[in-house]
Amino acid sequence: MASTPLTTQVSALLDESGVREGSVHHAESGMFFLRHNDATAQVAAVYQPLLCLVLQGAKEVGTSTRTLTVSNGQSLLVSHSLPVTSRITIASHNCPYIALVLPLDLELLRELAPNAPLRSAGALQDPFSISLYPADEDLEKALTRYIEQCEEEASRTVLAPITLQEIHARLLMGPHGDQLQKLLWHETTASRVFQATQHIQANLSTAIAIADLAKRAGMSNSAFFEHFKSITGTSPLQYQKDLRLLRARDALRSSNNKVSEVAFSVGYDSPAQFSREYARKFGISPKQDRATASAA
Known about the structure:
Blueprint: H1 5-17, E1 22-26, E2 31-36, E3 43-47, E4 50-56, E5 58-62, E6 67-71, E7 74-78, E8 82-90, E9 97-103, H2 106-112, E10 130-134, H3 137-151, H4 153-158, H5 160-173, H6 177-184, H7 189-202, H8 210-217, H9 221-232, H10 236-254, H11 259-265, H12 271-282, H13 286-295
Antiparallel strand pairs: 1-2, 2-9, 3-8, 4-7, 4-9, 5-6, 5-8, 7-10
Helix pairs in contact: 3-5, 5-6, 6-7, 8-9
């Protein structure tokens, strides 16, 4: 695929940052730029609602039940907070993997949605909260302008917010629009599941009951479980477990708290069970992970 102006722009900013491999946060725009020269091992993380545009190379992103391959020239949109695993599959020194990530502003989307073309109120053909489509040329141009405007103080204050609105509007009007509008409409299944994920995150150390979540969502237990899994790609209990383990990993790497204290803080009653599940997810024990992170 021929290099686009956006690819050249992101590559130049990565060069200026001094980051030859990895990711950099572009504070002026709020974006993250990524570059890798080789394929990577699988990495677990929590994706907040975001747009990811792969400019070169390819990566795999998925949950416990679904995996998508995102290749150059494709845009991936995540509408819900999701624990995912990802790995870069195509990258080389001559043609590194390059991507940008734009966190979505859900409040801005809600402001714009009433004026966007109304989508069908029917069920999405695929309710999964990760959608994948070829990148729209006009969206790429808007992203290019937005980054340029964020580089200058005057345009960052006056023009960039307008272009950021345009980017979100184009997402609502483009192929990702069905998924976004289902999320933004009140009382839709996607919206109710989104509220359930927010509740789980806010009460991460508390045991959850499907019946309680289903009642909050206004669904039967079986309907809630089915919709939750179809939208997030995992069950409610597995969703909570993945979030607990990811938060525990962050705590282990950023504090000197004992492993047992970290386990209790994220809701585990048994440090032994915590260590087993941690090793099963990350392939290494909590103590070994902390030691490896400290040595890096």
